[in-house]
Amino acid sequence: MFESDLKPVTLNQQALNDLAVGCAFLGSGGGGDPHYALLELSILIEKKGPDFHIDLIPASKLSDKDLVAPCGWLGAPTVSLEKLPSGTEALAGLEMLEEIMGREVNAVFPVEIGGSNGLAPLILAVKTGLPVVDCDGMGRAFPESQMVIFNVHGVSASPAVLTDAKGNSFVIGAVDNITEERVARAAAVSLGGICHLFEYVQSGKQVKDHAIHGTLSIAVEIGRSIREAKEKGADPFEALLDVMRSFPHYGAAGILFDGKIMDVKRETKQGFSVGHLLIEDFAGKNQMEIEFQNENLIARVGDKIYATVPDIISVMDRETAHTITTEQIKYGQRVKVVGVSAPSVLRTPEALEIMGPKAFGMSDRYRSIEALNGWKGSNDAQ
Amino acid sequence: MFESDLKPVTLNQQALNDLAVGCAFLGSGGGGDPHYALLELSILIEKKGPDFHIDLIPASKLSDKDLVAPCGWLGAPTVSLEKLPSGTEALAGLEMLEEIMGREVNAVFPVEIGGSNGLAPLILAVKTGLPVVDCDGMGRAFPESQMVIFNVHGVSASPAVLTDAKGNSFVIGAVDNITEERVARAAAVSLGGICHLFEYVQSGKQVKDHAIHGTLSIAVEIGRSIREAKEKGADPFEALLDVMRSFPHYGAAGILFDGKIMDVKRETKQGFSVGHLLIEDFAGKNQMEIEFQNENLIARVGDKIYATVPDIISVMDRETAHTITTEQIKYGQRVKVVGVSAPSVLRTPEALEIMGPKAFGMSDRYRSIEALNGWKGSNDAQ
């Protein structure tokens, strides 16, 4: 059901700007603000000259035996605001990974499409010439690395390679994927809170069978819809909802709340940015509370739940229609909360065990965002 | 100054029993109770038949280009009381280390002579046939892995290989030795609190130049002196002090306190067993307080300090003259506290930076145990 028929997609600077906007949206508040990654990518591309562009290849172009490396950053997004990368982390990790595997890596892709992590493999691709596969492992972002579709399908996270800005490197050989997350998180915390990670290294066949396909080009489309609506003076939220309803993996989408940030409680704890935020509507009557662990996990008004993981909850600036990631939320911001149905592969009983409300210690059973809000069903739910 | 002229030493079961007693003593309360390691070793040797024995080789027998791997366990000794090893940790780590180094390891030795860690490489040696070098890296035990003579001499702790009882493995490539400790500790905590570790892997030349030589056979002598004194009905403490005064690395030795354990505060925190204990003399007049972090760090009565790291502070059962490691200290035990001067290489300004009182956050400047107690100087202090 995931076999993508997408053609290779060419990304120029404008497409990359759009991609950053789309990744922030799909991140459900997490994955880190893509601002810095976009700057780094833009500088790299500018140096390559005006005709340079990045090609995304569909997974169908991979050979079954290709070695494909998902990558991204692990840690608390709050840390990434102050602790900038050195730019050497991913390359050092790639070299080490190739040494361990005894062969070259053939392609990379984002382990999660959310936030700056959606852009991470593109930076590596510009530096190395490696192709980027148009897919990811989550169809959004999740805070813990075992919350990935490859784990649902029994792919091993190990060997994983963790590298940091100072040149430290760690190879993790964990017997299970929860242990991989736990050790990687502990190591990242001990190194200052954020590290680059290769994990769930897999064959081309596994990428074709299990990845969530087309999500990089979907993110570009999201950014473009918002930008074009604003250029035309149209409502960017209407454009966003329309385009989200058109994508195969998503479908159900709507505005959950409209108001002003009244309170934020956020702490950086055990390698995560955790807390909750309160949004009050402009009538001053109702408040939506959103709990987050890097990503927004649950949105409720009083006792009524509007959305929970794995469905996407994105808090967006109501003027620019750009997502505000959880580490950037501040008192006084005027926002709209947009909810979108998660890809159906994240909603199976097996997937919900790993990335549903229970996996976050919530007692609430998962109910789909469309059921909670009386919306039309998601596109791939049937 | 460390060049050993010791002959190869042959260890039979009785010598191993003596070694365990000596290692517990030199551990300064740390390194873990050697009871379990001795059991494991005894079973392995029994299976090999009555004529089997372990040979210790002096470092002078190493070739300069040999690859030599110090090893031991990292974690809180309190954890090791309940979480037993699987027996596969060291072998799995050795295999991984050889793969990383691209060559075979030629010999092993204990990274610290203290407690069960003094016996750890012997277990590996029986399983693999590898020779054990008669030396260690501390001349005692220390809680943190950068507190080792090789770090004073600029040897890199990396690549280090951490393995656990479940089959997890972790290869650490740290840019400095403090980071190696920090990440290894964080990983060990995340894996349940105790792991096997190869670190400071070095050449035969480095072992000859930097290791603290002869400490395994010294530990055997310590155990034998105590045992033989008891067999003869003599005072084992007198025998212990006599033998400690005779060794080149040590020299100053005495009984610091005699009394009953009145209070123990101990918690397992951040991968260490930390706390303090109070011993009251039998007249009920004075109390000695000892602070510990895995190892005993400082002993004082009121304001008067009797000993601090790196000098050795060993709390011993006053009947058996066996050391009680910090995780085994209990209310009511009747004990003598024995102090011994540390090897002079641990007392240089460079070494004290790494393993002196300041390294443990104490404001007290280091003063030698012989100066604090008005004893004759240590043997290698001149």
Automatic annotation (TrEMBL), chains A, B:
The UniProt record lists the S-Me-THD-like C-terminal domain at 177-367
Q: Where is the S-Me-THD N-terminal domain?
A: 15-172
Record InterPro entries: S-Me-THD-like_C (IPR048350), S-Me-THD_C_sf (IPR024071), S-Me-THD_N (IPR010318), S-Me-THD_N_sf (IPR027479)
Q: Which SUPFAM superfamilies match?
A: CV3147-like (SSF160991)
Note the Pfam families from the entry. S-Me-THD_C, S-Me-THD_N
Q: Which domain of life is it from?
A: Bacteria
Stated name of the protein: DUF917 domain-containing protein
Q: Which organism is it from?
A: Kordiimonas pumila
